[in-house]
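RETRY 2/3 - previous attempt timed out on the joint model. Re-submitting the same 1035-residue input unchanged.
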Amino acid sequence: MSSKHLRPTLCRLGTPVSVLGLLVLAGSLLAAPPVVRAQQAEEQTERTGRQFYPDDPLWLDPDTRDIPPVKEFDLFQDYDFVQNTFGDPGGPQGPSLDSNTLDEVPDSSWFTNRIGRRVMTVAEVVRGPDTGNGPAPGVWEVTGRPSGGITPKFTIRDARGDTYVIKLDPPDFPELASSAEVISTKIFHAIGYHVPENYVVNFDPRRLEIASDASFHARPIRRVDLEHWFKGQVRNANGTIRALASRYIRGTPVGPYRYYGTRTDDPNDIISHERRRPLRALRVFAAWLNHDDSKSLNTFDAYVEDAGRRYVRHYLLDFGATLGSGSTHAKRPRAGYEYYLEADSILKGIFTLGLWTRDWSKVDYPDYSSIGRYEADFFEPSKWKPKYPNPAFDQMNAADAFWAARIVSRFTDELIRAIVAEGQISDPEAAAFLAEAMIRRRDKVVHYWISHTNPLDRLAVRHTANPGHELTFDNAAVRVGAAGQAGRYAVRWSALDNLTGQTRPAGEVVELQEAHVRIPEGAWGRADDVGDRYAAAAIQTLHPDFPHWTEPVLVTLRNRRDEVDVVGIQRPRTQPDLRR
Amino acid sequence: MMLRDMTSVELFLTRSASAAGTQKRFGTCRRAVIAPWVMASLLWTAIPVAVAAQAREEEQDSQAPTRAELLEAAREAKGYAVVAPTRTSVERGLRRFRDVTRFAGNLRNGWKGFHFATGDFPAGAGFAYGLAFTDLAVGSFYADPDLPNRVDVNAVATRSNAGYQQAGGELTVRNLGGGPFGVAVRGRYYEFPQEDFFGLGPFSQEEDRTSFLLESTEVGSDLWWEPTGGLRVGGSLSYLNPRIGSGTDTRFLSTEQGFDAATLPGFQAQPNFRRLDGWVDYDGRDNPSHPRAGGFYQIRFSEFQELDLNAFDFQRVDVDLQHYLPFSQKSRVLVLRANAVLTYADAGHEVPFYYQPTLGGKQTLRGFREFRFRDRNSLLFTAEYRWEAWWALDPALFVDAGKVASRRSDLDLRDLEVSYGVGLRFHSTNTFIVRLDLAKSREGFIPFLRFDHVF
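RETRY 2/3 succeeded.
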């Protein structure tokens, strides 16, 4: 049985057997030196069935097939909280199912590879999803006042006929929510999520006209309503009010999506959401940006038409409660540190008569009203939590987190400062603080999650002068500064029969100082039905400071008419120790 | 991983095999409602057929399948089995609960100012119900607290299952002339038929509990000035015509049966009163709904001028001092309260027993029954330690100590009645919601469930 199948099998057998099995396994592994453990693990591999298809690795998941219209299905916030707090709606733990054979995420209706896969210019990142410059100048027609969410807002139709939601900043915290929303929008877009166009705007209330059919609480909106909404809002010197303009997402709204299961009326949606890497690894991004409001209610499905096809596209939205913003106030001190409801903390709080205090309650935040509560000193990536449990976050494994951390590492200091500038925070000191905190949190996130698993990446094949090929790779942890030295590597080669999944050891374990190794001729398995041959390498990283790096990265090479490339990468999928 | 490890069949079966209900024929938009078992049969049949067809095509083409084709097949198969999303029974139940809550909220919020009211009766009144009318900031859509000359109108009529009833109204004008002044006129009739009376003085006995009827019509006017944040100075003039009668609580004797009515000041002779009040208070609490710091300090002087018998003129001074001592960034609070009520009556005059201060109950000596101690003067101390166990819950330990006395000189710290207990205070981030207290005294345990704070 292969190691990748071990966990699900044990889960099926039940917890006691699982624990016993894991103890036996751990004992046997600990009794042997690392290199031998890798060898044993590889020899235990009994892959069955076809391993790779001719079109692997897939970089485009064709989940944008034309489908019939789907109906709107709303979610009930209270139920979402109850279900995720008291239940465990996600399926059994397992690897993400939407990554390709290179352990990357293909483009899909959920995710588009951007900064993680290609170089993005600063201009491209700060432009983000924007297709224009926001609402057109001229008269804005007030069309309604949405009731969802907690942010004071209303909808307008601009001179071009485009509809926007205008979200007001909290009066005591001018610029707070609008800057947070714009900054996070740019980042989530660059990461690869579908997000709405969000703009900081300064509008003149006198420029607002009320549409004849505009209503609010089943009555017409009147001028006095506008005056009430804007009462207390901080005004600019010219009388304008700063706000956020969020453009309506194109397509037909069909409701938010859940972080588990599939949408039963969407034929394209065949992967349980808790097994989708972009949703699982959102935990890493959300921790960086303190997006503790990352719940189903802040997602959005739109039935869109694109290139003649109609399908459901999946969005993240409502980033007003990111960074130090709580949308209508500064972030609560508990944000990111404790779920709404944690029985053990409550009981501890009750029975210690207040002598036990939460360590996060002592964090001292700088007094910037436009920043709120956001800092980097106390923040620990592994301990970060959303407002209440998220089944996809709970299933994030080391491979998911590694994937996310590598994306986060692509945001340079310069890029982060440029993105923060898009928030148009008027206090330069506050803006500088925010950028610095984001940079330091980025470093913490990247260092923690990249070094949390065997950090080999940039796996490639190159021709050598000596006839043949060699496999090259890099140590991401060293590259990002999470580890001081690379250590050594141990490689165990096997020949892979692609049609059966059977492997045959090819030679002894090779120990390396350098990050490249020659591919032995004997490592190629028999040709499959399309004539391709495959070789597999299990690569351990031997580092005294990171003993868990001995869990190997499994790399599969394909020889297609003497063109050799990397076709498979399987990283350790251990479940990180996340506090729930 | 699906895009690397699993066949299309496997991946499709991971979740959607349980689909049943409304089927949509993928590609044609034709919709038909069929029984779940038929749906399941179709599902289990469609998949092998799709896979077999796939295999035949592969055989004919002599080509290996591609990953994209397998994904396509899986999606095609699900297209035969799409069903409308459904809600669990728990979600449906929660939605119903929300609807009920909204309905109750609508009752409370009412229609065009009319709304359901629960009354503001003394403890022990039972379940109360009634109708009220409220219009805050008359003529304006929003009750803007800063609106000059804001006019508020309140009217209420309520009754309880124990026979308590009241009706009244109030007209208030705030921000007079745009300044920090307010004026109100009010009138109320009430009838409380089961007010508890245990006797006068500190040595009254619990087993002597009786009940009496307190009925009164009160009309008056208030004027106040708010010179600076938190400070208020005010005065009022009222007319009172209290009437005392037999209690209706069948569990206990009526007061005149349990006590010698002739010895109870004001029980038999029942005059009318003119009442003059002057008061100063300062509210320095950080959040009056659920304070964690600051304090509230009030002193009120009242003169009761009896209008008929020249036997019940008296003055009353109420001092109430509340202070909140926060520590550990307000996660812990020590709440201290001192309250004293002193009455002064000239020679030949008495203080009617129903205007005398009382101790006991939800806001004073919590381990004793409501109105348990009554006399011309009272003294009360409370210390309550609250700590934040959760963002929405503060447990509390408290101790109350106090006494009543006929003479002011007897208001010392000797022989104080003591009660103590534990409590839970539930709140949102800024607003107090409900408290549960369990208080203990020499007379036993008393639990409270209250929607108002201790003080």
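The first strand of chain A starts at residue 140 and ends at 144. Closing ticket.
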